[in-house]
Request: fold
Amino acid sequence: MLTKRLKSSTILLHIILFIGAVFMTVPFLWMVSSALKDLGQVFLVPPKWIPDPFIWGNFKASLTALPFGRAYYNSIYINIIVVVAQLITCSMAAYAFAKIRFPFRDAIFILFLATMMVPGQVTIIPLYLIMKNLGWIDTHLPLIVPAALLNAFGVFLLRQFFMGIPREMEEASIIDGANRWTIYTRVMLPLVKPALSALGIFTFLGMWNSFFYPLIFLNTPDLFTVPMMLNLYRGMYATDWTLMMAGASVALIPVLIVYIVGQRYIIEGVTLSGIKG
Reply:
């Protein structure tokens, strides 16, 4: 009887997950379908899922109508810098909070985590004034520096992983003559590779899709990232939906590659860290 109940609950769970997957996949399929249509087919009622004919030229037109190559370069190099910087700064802070005893350590960590509760829109005005006084407006520095230096979620994720490492390993390294830096780089970091991989993927996905901060800080089209460049297809009186959908489909390729390649690392990094207080 218990086995039958478990099977029934498993089947029901899979049905619910399948329905949820369908709802999340439909917008993606509609985007790809619209990218292969002419403008008249996009607004047909009832909707026509299979384009007739297939307009493959939309992809070429989308990439040549605007400087998408430059936007891709901007997004890629900003993402690489931020991901590498966050892995360094977050891992160092997480190691300190997890393994080094200093006055008010737990209170400082709780205060640091409290920053996760403050929406970015609340702090955007003081942040803008700081960037303006530094002369960084209309540069990529406002997108790189704050993101590279402050990620409370990343510190929290890695701290949980560091806390799961037995203290005996650290004590054995100290007996062998290792200092803090050696323990951090040669003992601890190799043990937290799954969590580092998960954090790197989360950071890449978040930065690649970021639209709010580039919209605030960037004015020159040559500095635009991919989401900002896509927004240029939206005109004041009309929007070229076919080119926008084609550009969005191309912009999604790096995200899909990163997710498909790193899916195992995301699951492994989150589950092994425990996400517990």
